[in-house]
Amino acid sequence: MGGEHAEQQPVGARPDVLEVGVAAACDVVENVALLLVLGDPGRSGAPEVAQAFALAKFALLAVTLACLLAALVAYLGRRGAMMR
Fold first, then answer.
1. Distance (Å) of CA 73 to CA 18, 59, 65, 82
2. SS3 sequence, the chain?
3. Which of 2, 7, 23, 37 could be stapled to 60 by a disulfide with Cβ–Cβ 3.0 to 4.6 Å?
4. pTM for this structure?
């Protein structure tokens, strides 16, 4: 205590973590929709729901991968500059 406060990170400081969590939720919805299709192939709308959530999942994972690659390039750039 004594006036010392831990510095708090702002909400959303790690968007890649949020994106992966949302992608995981999309995967769950996609899997449930696919199970509904297996249980009743004539079920209306389930294939379209599965497709929509699969597309969202892979789009979010692509954004996450792009962020990770950008961070790697930035890290290697700083590392290379420090070694010179």
1. 22, 21, 12, 14
2. CCCCCCCCCCCCCCHHHHHHHHHHHHHHHHHHHHHHHHHCCCCCCHHHHHHHHHHHHHHHHHHHHHHHHHHHHHHHHHHHHHHC
3. 23
4. 0.69
Q: Judging by beta carbons within 10 Å of its beta carbon (0-12, 13-18, 19+), is residue 16 exposed, middle or buried?
A: middle
Token digits of residue 50: 């599965």
Q: Which residue's entry shows tokens 């696919």?
A: 34
Closest to 55 in 3D by CA, of 83, 81, 33, 77: 33
Token reading at 52: 């929509």
